[in-house]
Structures are given as structure tokens and as C-alpha cells.
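Subject: sequence -> C-alpha cells, single chain

Hey, anyone have a minute? Need the predicted structure for the following. Not urgent.
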Amino acid sequence: MNAQELRDKTPDELRDQLAALKKEAFNLRFQQATGQLENTARMRSVRRDVARVATILTEKAAAAAATE
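Reply:
Had a minute. Here:
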């Protein structure tokens, strides 16, 4: 997922996606702790996706506040 795709989504969709990504990160941490995680690079990509979504949400909130 790239930033442009995220900017096209509504804030509600972004919040839903953020919750799903955080849940996935939680599950990946448990898999790593129990030794079941095979693709360790997925943790990094999920962590970066969480940051990307949070950044876009902040940008949208700032833009909404600036227009009011």
C-alpha cells in the first residue's frame, strides 16, 4: 500500500485499517515469541504501514482543522 492510496481513503476507512494493522502486529509479535513466525520481514512492513496510516490520519486532521 502506498501513501497515495491511503490519501484517497476517508478517515473512517483509515481508522479501520489502522485497527486491523495493529491487530496484525500484535498477532505477529505473539508468533515471533512462540517461534512460529516464518516471515520476519512482515513485522517491519506492518509497523511501517501503521506509521504510514497514522501519518495520513494526522495530515487529514490538520487539513480539516485548517479549513475550519
